[in-house]
Design a protein that fits this description.
This protein is an alpha/beta fold. It contains 12 helices and 6 strands. The protein has helices at about 30-40, 50-55, 60-70, 70-80, 85-105, 115-125, 135-150, 170-180, 195-205, 220-225, 230-245, 260-270; strands at about 15-20, 130-135, 155-160, 190, 205-210, 250-255. Helix 7 links the parallel strand 2 and strand 3. The two termini are about 30 Å apart.
Length: about 280
């Protein structure tokens, strides 16, 4: 008889890798949307916040490229400038986008409620903290400085322009894992508010937890979310949970405030020899 020996990790969670906007800071992931809407407005093209949110989670130049192939934007661009946006136009848009994005980040870098407390509780358990983002290094440095002033400092910070491929490729999470000196990807959890971010964690072989309310799927500030009537909150919550579950996330939670019980569930599964 042929016995297949299956090796499995049975220890605790060693690291959690967080997304930034919509996950740990910027409730509603508003900074990128503001910047994209302003970017196209400056070129005479009106885009809606929902259109701007479509490719969220991807690296920002790629995000702009995907917006430019939307029929409404491509047609408006052709009408104004005589052709659809080519690579040169996309490069130009990206250069113009950087200062808009940095300014928007400064305006909306508040930590998501309970972020600091949850991260402190993870650290007390010996869990290392990584973070990654579709922002470039200049944008990330602006955001990390604002977060540090509020008491949140990840041990490893990776941005999309520092790896060969951004999300949904696993490169950023794997770079975090290297920097955090992770023993195995099975001991790592990726927490994100977008489908490409969850796919990144799955492609890296990690556990994944999606946050539904604080991020891109709902896309409202905390004040606006709390002002919604309960029935509308419930409808939007259900839709966000459904979309994030469909991405393959192991768990979906409301926000980082609900993270700790889910980490405990994952640790129980690890002890039984389960893998992501």
């Amino acid at each position: 008889m042929h016995f297949h020996y299956q090796r499995s990790y049975r220890g605790p969670v060693q690291a959690v890798i967080f997304d930034w906007a919509g996950t740990t800071v910027d409730f509603g992931s508003l900074a990128p949307v503001t910047a994209f809407v302003r970017l196209f407005a400056a070129k005479g093209i009106e885009i809606t916040p929902d259109e701007a949110r479509g490719p969220m989670g991807t690296e920002k130049r790629e995000h702009i490229r995907r917006l430019c192939v939307l029929p409404c934007i491509a047609e408006a661009w052709r009408t104004l400038y005589g052709s659809v946006p080519d690579d040169t136009a996309i490069d130009w848009l990206y250069e113009a986008f950087i200062p808009l994005q940095v300014a928007a980040i400064r305006d909306s870098a508040q930590l998501v409620p309970c972020c600091r407390e949850v991260v402190a509780a993870l650290r007390r358990r010996g869990i290392r903290i990584g973070a990654n983002t579709g922002y470039n290094r200049e944008m990330l440095d602006t955001l990390a400085a604002a977060a540090a002033e509020q008491g949140y400092q990840p041990d490893s910070n990776v941005c999309a322009t520092e790896v060969p491929r951004g999300r949904p490729f696993p490169h950023m999470s794997l770079k975090n894992a290297l920097e955090l000196e992770l023993e195995t990807v099975q001991a790592c959890v990726k927490v994100d508010d977008t489908v490409p971010g969850i796919e990144e964690g799955l492609n890296a072989g990690m556990w994944t937890i999606a946050v539904a309310i604080s991020g891109n799927e709902i896309g409202l500030s905390l004040t606006d979310w709390e002002a919604l009537p309960p029935l509308e909150q419930q409808q939007r919550r259900s839709a966000a949970y459904a979309r994030l579950r469909a991405s393959g996330a192991h768990y979906v939670i409301e926000s980082i405030a609900d993270l700790l019980p889910t980490i405990e569930l994952i640790e129980r599964r690890l002890v039984r020899g389960e893998r992501p």
